[in-house]
Design a protein that fits this description.
- It is a single chain.
- The protein is built from eight helices and ten strands.
- The chain is an alpha+beta fold and 297 residues long.
- It has three domains: 19-114; 119-152 and 266-296, no CATH class; 162-256, Lipoprotein YajI-like (Immunoglobulin-like).
- The strands form three sheets. The chain has a four-stranded antiparallel sheet, covered by helices on one side. It has a three-stranded antiparallel sheet with strand order 5-6-9.
- The chain is elongated and about 100 Å long.
- The model is unreliable at 14-21 (pLDDT under 50).
- This is Lipoprotein.
- Keywords: Signal.
- Residues 1-20 form the signal peptide.
Length: 297
């Protein structure tokens, strides 16, 4: 009799647990529909209340209207969280946490945060598994100062550096007019075109005889195709004595404006599609080294 009573008790307990689980699922399904409705009507207060970290998103994309059977709620037994899976092209998901009796909060999502086109393109070209990473992980991955973007810049940033040279600088003096005519060639030694708006050319003049103080002259850059040269031709005043005594000297430097941006890298890099995996391997090695150092202490 006791055994039968215990079995009946356990059966009732299982039924209760099953019912409670089903109750959570149905309520979370309603919450998921409520959230998508808030997105549709742009009810920001409700969106932020249900999903506080949605504030991280620049913009969120609304799923298509959720029809019967288009939404499936699954419980993660390991964490106790529930995933509301939307059956659509983006495989969108909302992760719910039970915060109290009949209260739930969205703690993460998949496919709801819109990624900037630049980073979406970068993700595809570098092998980032967009559908497997949550919105918040992707947001962290593509932050301006994120380790992943730093990895990409370190790997390909050299492609955006100016590869300009200067050669065959000559001058002629007009001593009556107290001017020196300067001619200076520059060349694009790189494999990519260079825009004049991306750099300045700085001339630094000096008089070896010490008759004139050093000075600089800045010229606007010019557009150069790979291998193309250009000759700067201009007049310089105050250095006729130095020119007459063959003591006029100058150097040329190039001041790059910006450069090294992700836009520049995207234009020039030949991605392999394995960069994201390389990044993960590097992160793993760094953690391993850090762990060894910590254990030695």
């Amino acid at each position: 009799m006791k055994t039968r009573t215990i079995q009946l008790f356990l059966l009732l307990l299982c039924c209760f647990a099953f019912t409670a689980c089903d109750s959570n699922k149905s309520k979370i399904e309603e919450k998921a529909k409520q959230f998508t409705e808030a997105l549709k009507t742009k009810d920001v207060a409700t969106i932020y209340d249900m999903y506080p970290n949605s504030k991280l998103a620049n913009h969120m994309t609304l799923t298509t209207n959720v029809a019967q059977g288009d939404l499936e709620v699954v419980k993660d037994e390991a964490t106790g969280n529930y995933t509301a899976n939307f059956k659509n092209a983006r495989d969108q998901k909302l992760i719910f946490k039970v915060t109290g009796k009949d209260t739930y909060q969205i703690i993460d999502s998949y496919g709801f945060f819109d990624i900037e086109p630049l980073y979406s393109d970068l993700a595809v070209k570098t092998g980032v598994p967009l559908k497997k990473l949550s919105d918040q992980k992707l947001k962290e991955l593509f932050k301006d100062d994120s380790p992943f973007l730093s990895f990409i810049k370190n790997k390909y940033g050299g492609l955006t550096e100016l590869n300009l040279s200067y050669f065959d600088g000559v001058y002629t003096g007009n001593y009556n007019l107290n001017i020196v005519q300067i001619e200076q060639n520059i060349k694009n030694e790189g494999d990519f075109p260079v825009k004049g708006s991306d750099y300045d050319v700085i001339f630094s003049f000096s008089d070896e005889g010490g008759n004139c103080a050093s000075s600089t002259k800045t010229m606007d850059g010019v557009d150069l195709a790979p291998g193309e040269t250009f000759t700067f031709n201009f007049q310089l005043t105050g250095y006729t004595t130095a020119a007459y005594n063959h003591q006029l000297q100058w150097t040329v430097s190039f001041n790059q404006k910006g450069g090294g941006t992700m836009k520049d890298i995207m234009k020039k890099a030949k991605f392999t599609g394995n960069e994201y995996n390389e990044f993960l391997q590097q992160q793993s090695k760094n953690k391993s080294k850090a762990g060894k150092k910590s254990s030695k202490k």
